[in-house]
Amino acid sequence: MAEQITPRAKDYSQWYIDVVLQSRLADYAPVKGCMVIRPRGYALWEKMRERLDVMFKETGHQNAYFPLLIPESFLRKEAEHVEGFSPELAVVTHAGGEKLEEPLVVRPTSETIIWAMYKKWIQSWRDLPLLINQWANVVRWEKRTRLFLRTTEFLWQEGHTAHATAEEAQEETLRILMVYKKFAEEYMALPVLAGIKSESEKFAGAVRTYAIEGLMQDRKALQAGTSHNLGQNFAKAFEVTFQTKEGGLDHVWATSWGVSTRLVGALIMAHSDDRGLVLPPALAPTQVALVPIFTNKNKTEVLGYAGKLAARLRAAHTVELFDDDQSSPGWKFAEAELSGIPVRIEVGPRDMEKGQVVLVRRDTLEKIPVPEKETESRVKSLLDDIQAGLFHRALAFRKENTRRIDDYEEFRGFMEGDGGFAESGWCGDAACEAKIKDQTKATIRVLPLGREPPEDRRCVCCGEQAKEIAVFAKSY
Length: 476
Ligand SMILES: [Zn+2]
Fold this sequence. Notes:
476 residues; alpha+beta; BirA Bifunctional Protein, domain 2; Rossmann fold; 3 domains; 11-stranded mixed sheet; 5-stranded mixed sheet; 23 strands; 35% helix; 27% strand; globular; binds zinc ion
């Protein structure tokens, strides 16, 4: 039997760690801040990666791979970029038993090495757009780490695109933002707000940063993906110019965008419960846990029956058959719940007599007896119901925990209390943003896309006319 998972209501942070460790998604590595992704966690990441990879290819991107080591001088070429990343860099100074002439940086992100290569590959408008993605690991020397959510080394994808015009780069930035939103909502069952980041929260070297933000069960926000319009900043730093259609010479326009293994953390915190993981069927590595209930007397009969049922279900779903005779059914149920398998099927001698099986939903724990003949169709519709149910539950939770607030005392009370998303007027002044962060720990998560200008709204902090509606929250 698994150890006890700390209940969410008692200690949410400890609950999260317990779920990750006990469900065997990941473990702490010997180097502080690093994480070992165990087979179950990696299977989940692989499912995410497979789906996202299809979505990137459908939108015209190709995969490539750039090296892990970057000459230190490359990072210095873009002033904001080096300033933003310097505190987090891991630098190789010795190799092959000798001190290196130029230190090498372990990539914290790959803009600089990619743009050094793009300089060789781009000469004319005919070479554009260049739409490349890479799946890789990166290293950022973080002081405070948390499994999946913030680790020194993590896995991610980073897209880096080059375009002939500012408009095309902007379109690409938003196209990817929408790909991320669709992935989060349709596959992770996680409703997200899509919007633009304030100046203080944007990526180091970007003109504009867009992000998707989800609300976790402890009412803190989690940034789940970012898409940056880099303007001509990197093209200028790396002198990447091209012959325009009209015969002129211009700097190339750029975007970059990424999601990481942090998404696994988001998935856990959005849906899981005090029994362990709750996974959306679209991403669950195993969709069905089939648990035969037998004694020594009827073992052959029940296992034969369950084996046939498993074979039928495997035509459409991933199935784990819990057929060992070492552990009790109760242990198997708990194990299936801990690992977040969306549907459990129980089948015992009495069910066999009645010609039925019992389906159990992981999300609501509801038990549903169904005729054995209908198992396939009922499992399929149940998986669809669970996928939709998780999304709607998370959406309802977000609605309950989103409040329109323009009064500062109310805002402070909200953030000191349960918290959540506060939709507030903002004058656009970084000083108000900084004061709010200092006094309440809440930051602007996004300025949501497609909002009406806030004519009748006041800045929640200073009371001046609001220029924006900003969504504030405490965050991971
Ligand atoms: Zn203000």
